[in-house]
C-alpha cells in the first residue's frame, strides 16, 4: 500500500497548481487558502439602480450553478479529501457586483452582447478575499459582470456534503478582458435538423466558456428550415417536415436567449451556392437543380445555385436576405459565398443567356449579385460576413468593414489581411469539428473525410491567431471559431462532437497565446482545467465527452507522455 | 417544379429495391404488395405448451415495437406517400410462432442463448402472405423464434396515421440462420464507468441486429468496478466510487437481460497485465505498480501486472477467476492475456527472485500461470478465451478448444488458425470503434490515435471473415466483433460511437459475404437499409448517429459517389 499512498500524495501536490478556470483569465493571482460560501451566501448589486432583467437572471443562474453543479475536485478522494479543511474555513457571505464609475446607466446584457463586434465591453475584475467576507466583481458593462459571474462559478467545488468552496483564495483578477472579440461556434442546421432546445443547450455551453458569437448556418441546399414570413413557401417546401422548422418566434427566442448569455447570433444565408432547396418553391431562381452527376455541379449533393445573373433572382436574393436580416438584433449577417461551382452556371442555359444579355462576365455578375445583397445589409446598418472565397477567389468588391471567415486553410489568413480585410479564423485544418469520421457519400468503402484527420482539442488549442500575420495587420484579426458541419451529426451526437473540444478556441481567443503568468498556453497545463470544465458541463446536462480515463482525470500529469 | 417531381419519382422507384432488414437474411424472397397489420393483430404460439416466460416477454416486446417504433419510410413524403395504398391493403390478423417437429420441449431463450458457442440454434423461417391473413415464424428453438421476431419487427413501417404495414409482401424467408455463431460487441467498463442502464440499452441495440455475444471487458488497470463477494476489497479500493460498481445482482441482472434477448455474456478478467488497480488492496500481487515512466512498463498508464511467477499470486488469480466465472451462465470466459510488458517483470525484484527460486523462465512461468487459471475454467466446464498474444507471442499451452481473439491486425488471423485454434475476428484495423479521435495521453499536441484512422461502418462492412484463411481451416472461424475501448468514451458518447457502426459486423457475421440473391455484400445497397436501422434505433431510444444528411437518407443513391 505504501507506494500507492506515496503516489496519491504526489498527485495531490501536483494538483495544487491547477485551477478550474476556462478560459484562464489574462490576469490572475491566487493563494492557497480554502474559503467557502456561507449558507446564507447571496449575490447583490452595488450602486446599480434598475438592474436589467437579464442581469438579475444571470445572477440567479450563478446562484443555481453554485448550488447545483456539485462538482467535486478531480483528485483521488474527490471532495472528501478537502472536507475537513472546508469545515473550518472562513466563509464568504456575499458577492457584490458593481459597474465602474463612468459606465453610465446599466444596459441589458443582451444589448451589450449584440453591439457591433469590436465595440463590446467584456472585461471585468474579480476579488475573493482569503479571509472570507465579501467577494466583488466590477466591470464597465453588464456584459462584463456576466463574464465575471462565469469566472466566479468556476472557482467553486463541492466537498461532497453540499458546501461550495474554493481552495486557491485569495483570488484577484484585474481587468480580465478578451484578446479577441469573436470567440465563436458555428452550427449547421440544414443538413440535419436541431431543435431549439438543442441550440439553447449549445448556447449554454458557449456561455460557460465566455464565447461571444454563435454562427448559425441556418439553411443550405439540403433543407430550408427557416420560416420567413415574406417567403413562407421556402420552409413549406424546403423544411424536412413541418415540425423541423424555425418559426420567427423560435428565432427571436434563440437570439434573445443567446444575447442574455453574452452571445451575439450571426445568421448566415449562404449565397449564391448551397441553395438547391430553394428550387422546391422557386425553380426559376435555381441553376443546375439536382443536376447529375452531382460531383460535376456541387461539392456535395444536391446541386443547385441561385441564378446570379438573373435580375429577378438578384432581386429575390436581396429581398430574402433583407427580410431575414431586418428581424435580427445582430450587427452582423453572413451572405456566405463559399464553393461556387462555375460549371453549374456554364451548363445553365438561362444563366448564359442572362450573362450575354447583360454583357457581364461571370465574375462581374457575381460582383453585382453581391453588391445587391450587401447593399440591403448596409441599409439595415449591418456588417457583411463572407467566406474566404469571396475575398480570394473572386473579383468581388467588398466593403472595408467586411469580415472574412478563413476556412479552407489556416495558411490563407495572410492573403486576406493583405487585402486589408478583417478576418475570423475558421480553418478546417484546426477548427472543423466534423473531420475524421470517414466519408459520408455513398458507395465509397475506403473514403476518409476530406479534412482528415480528426481535429483534436490539442490541435485546436495549438492555434496561434497571429501566426503568419504581420504586426501591422494584427488588428485585422477579430478572433476565431470552431465549426460543426452536420453531414454525420444530428442531436444524437451534438454535445459529444462539440464538447469539450470547442472550448479550445474559446480559450485561445479569450486568453491569447500566453497565460496569466506569461508562459505560453500549453496542452499539459490546460488538460486538468479542461477536465474540470468537462465534468462541470456534464453536471449541467451537457454531454461533454471524456478526454481520458477517469483514473487520469483524478491524477493530473500521470497520463502524460 | 417539374424537375423536382421527376426527381422524386425516380427516387421512389429506386427505393423499391431496398428493404429495412439488418442483417439481411441469407434466404429471402419478397413481392411488391402492401399488407398491413389489422387493428386486432396478435402474436400467438402454435403447439407450444408452457411457453417460457422470456419467449412471452419477447412477443410483448415485438408487439410494443410494432406499435411504438412509428418509423416512416425513408422516402420523400415519408409514410404519407404510401397511406392511400395502405388504406385499401389486405390485413394480417395474426402472427403464429411454432417450433419445428423434433424441437422438443421449449426451453427459455436464455437457456438457448447461453449454450456453448457453436451449439446454439438461431435459425428460423418466416412467411408473410401477400393476401394478408396469417404470418408465421417457425424455428427449432425459442432462440430461433426470437431471431424471427426481430426480423418481423423490421419489416413494418408506420404510415403516419398509426397503421403498420410492409410494402414488399409476400415475404418468404426459409431457414435464415447465421453464417457465424459469434457476432459480438466488446465494451470496456474499466477506463470509464457505464451504468447498468447504459449496458442494457447497448444490449437492446445488439439484440435488434441479432448479435449473439457481449464481451464485457469489465475490469482493467484503471478501475475494478466488479464486486466479487470473495474479494470485496478489490472493488472497495478499485472502483472509481462506491456508486460506480457492478454488484453481484447487477451482473446477474445484465446476464439475464442479455440471455433473454439472445445474447451470451463473455466476461473478461484480463491477466496478468492490465491489473494495476489490484495493488490498491493487494500490493503483494502486483509488479511495477504505477512505475514511472509508464511508457517503459505498460502500454498505457497506470503500470502494474500480476506477479505471475509468485505461487501466491497464481493462487490468488486462479481463485479470483473461479469466483467470478462460477456465477456466470456463459460457457465462455476470457482470461485476457494481451500486452504483457516484460520489462515490468525484469525490473521487479520479487518476480526475478520467484523465477530464480522456481528455475522457470518468464515464458514457463506465464505458461504455469495460464494453466492454473484455465484449469479453474475447465473445472467449471467453461471454455477459455484469450487475446492473440497468448497464441502468437508466448509459449503458452492452450487447450484445443480455446478461442483466440485476433485484435492487433486482421493479418494475424491466419497464424492463429495455423495453430489449429478457433478464432474470433476483433481486428483493430477494421473493428475498433474508438480509433481516430486523436491521442488521449497528455502533453501530446499532434498525437493521433495509435489505430488511426477512424474505422467507418463501410470499412467494417468490407471485412471478409475468410480472408487469408485456407478452406481447410474455415471451420475455425467462429465469427467476429466490434470493440469499444473507452479512454475517450463514457455514457456521453456510448450510443453515438457504437451505433449504427457496430451493425456492420452484425451483418457480416450473420449474412456472410453474399446477400440472399448471391451477390456480394455491398456498401451501396447496404446504406439504405442501414439508414432504416439507424432511424429505427433512434425511435427506440438509442442515440445512433446520422450517416448522411437527412436529404440523402430520403433519396437512396442520390448521394453516392
UniProtKB/TrEMBL annotation, chains A, B:
One GO term describing the cellular component: membrane
Enzymatic reactions: Hydrolysis of terminal non-reducing N-acetyl-D-hexosamine residues in N-acetyl-beta-D-hexosaminides
Keywords from the UniProt entry: Glycoprotein, Glycosidase, Hydrolase, Signal
UniProt entry tagged with the keyword Ion transport: no
Keyword Signal: yes
Enzyme Commission number(s) from the entry: 3.2.1.52
Alphabetized SUPFAM superfamilies for the sequence: (Trans)glycosidases, beta-N-acetylhexosaminidase-like domain
Pfam families attached to this UniProt entry: Glyco_hydro_20, Glycohydro_20b2
Ranges where the Beta-hexosaminidase eukaryotic type N-terminal domain occurs: 21-155
Similarity field: Belongs to the glycosyl hydrolase 20 family.
Protein name: Beta-hexosaminidase
Amino acid at each position: 500500500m505504501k507506494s500507492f499512498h506515496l503516489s496519491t500524495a504526489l498527485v495531490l501536490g501536483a494538483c495544487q497548481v491547477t485551477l478550474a478556470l476556462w478560459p484562464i483569465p489574462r490576469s490572475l493571482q491566487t493563494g492557497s487558502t480554502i474559503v467557502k460560501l456561507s449558507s446564507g451566501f447571496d449575490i447583490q448589486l452595488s450602486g446599480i439602480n434598475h438592474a436589467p432583467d437579464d442581469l438579475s437572471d444571470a445572477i440567479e443562474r450563478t446562484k443555481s450553478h453554485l448550488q447545483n453543479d456539485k462538482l467535486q475536485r478531480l483528485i483521488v478522494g474527490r471532495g472528501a479529501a478537502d472536507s475537513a479543511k472546508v469545515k473550518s474555513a472562513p466563509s464568504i457571505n456575499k458577492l457584490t457586483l458593481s459597474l465602474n464609475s463612468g459606465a453610465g446607466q446599466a444596459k441589458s446584457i443582451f444589448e451589450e452582447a449584440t453591439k457591433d463586434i469590436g465595440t463590446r465591453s467584456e472585461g471585468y475584475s474579480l476579488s475573493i478575499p482569503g479571509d472570507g467576507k465579501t467577494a466583488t466583481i466590477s466591470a464597465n458593462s453588464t456584459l462584463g459582470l456576466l463574464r465575471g459571474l462565469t469566472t466566479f462559478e468556476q472557482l467553486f467545488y463541492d466537498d461532497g456534503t453540499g458546501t461550495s468552496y474554493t481552495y486557491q483564495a485569495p483570488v484577484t483578477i484585474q481587468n480580465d478582458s478578451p484578446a479577441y472579440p469573436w470567440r465563436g461556434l458555428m452550427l449547421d442546421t440544414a443538413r440535419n435538423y436541431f431543435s431549439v432546445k438543442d441550440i439553447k443547450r449549445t448556447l449554454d455551453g458557449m456561455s460557460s466558456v465566455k464565447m461571444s458569437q454563435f454562427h448559425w448556418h441556418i439553411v443550405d441546399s439540403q433543407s430550408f428550415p427557416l420560416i420567413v414570413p415574406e417567403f413562407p413557401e421556402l420552409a413549406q417546401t424546403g423544411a424536412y417536415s413541418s415540425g423541423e422548422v424555425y418559426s420567427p418566434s423560435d428565432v427571436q427566442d434563440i437570439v434573445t436567449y443567446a444575447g442574455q448569455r453574452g452571445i451575439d447570433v450571426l445568421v448566415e444565408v449562404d449565397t449564391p451556392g448551397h441553395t438547391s432547396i430553394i428550387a422546391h418553391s422557386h425553380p426559376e431562381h435555381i441553376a443546375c437543380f439536382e443536376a447529375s452527376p452531382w460531383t460535376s455541379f456541387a461539392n456535395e449533393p444536391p446541386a443547385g445555385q441561385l441564378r446570379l445573373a438573373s435580375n429577378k433572382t438578384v432581386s429575390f436574393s436581396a429581398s430574402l436576405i433583407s427580410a431575414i436580416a431586418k428581424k435580427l438584433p445582430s450587427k452582423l449577417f453572413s451572405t456566405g459565398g463559399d464553393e461556387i461551382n462555375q460549371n453549374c452556371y456554364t451548363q445553365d442555359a438561362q444563366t448564359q443567356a442572362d450573362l450575354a444579355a447583360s454583357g457581364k462576365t461571370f465574375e462581374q455578375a457575381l460582383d453585382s449579385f453581391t453588391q445587391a445583397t450587401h447593399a440591403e445589409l448596409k441599409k439595415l446598418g449591418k456588417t457583411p460576413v463572407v467566406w474566404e472565397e469571396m475575398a480570394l477567389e473572386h473579383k468581388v468588391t467588398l466593403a472595408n468593414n467586411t469580415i472574412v471567415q478563413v476556412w479552407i486553410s489556416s495558411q490563407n489568413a495572410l492573403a486576406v489581411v493583405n487585402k486589408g480585410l478583417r478576418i475570423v479564423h475558421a480553418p478546417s485544418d484546426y477548427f472543423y469539428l466534423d473531420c475524421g469520421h470517414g466519408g459520408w457519400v455513398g458507395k465509397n468503402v475506403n473514403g476518409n473525410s476530406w479534412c482528415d484527420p480528426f481535429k483534436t482539442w490539442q490541435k485546436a488549442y495549438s492555434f496561434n491567431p497571429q501566426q503568419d500575420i504581420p504586426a501591422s495587420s494584427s488588428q485585422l484579426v477579430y478572433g476565431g471559431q470552431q465549426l460543426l458541419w452536420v453531414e454525420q451529426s444530428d442531436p444524437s451526437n451534438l454535445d459529444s462532437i462539440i464538447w469539450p473540444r470547442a472550448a479550445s478556441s474559446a480559450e485561445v481567443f479569450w486568453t491569447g497565446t500566453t497565460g496569466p503568468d506569461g508562459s505560453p498556453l500549453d496542452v499539459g497545463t490546460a488538460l486538468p482545467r479542461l477536465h474540470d470544465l468537462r465534468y462541470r458541463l456534464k453536471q449541467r446536462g451537457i454531454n461533454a465527452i471524456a478526454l481520458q480515463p477517469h483514473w487520469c482525470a483524478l491524477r493530473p500529469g500521470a497520463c502524460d507522455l
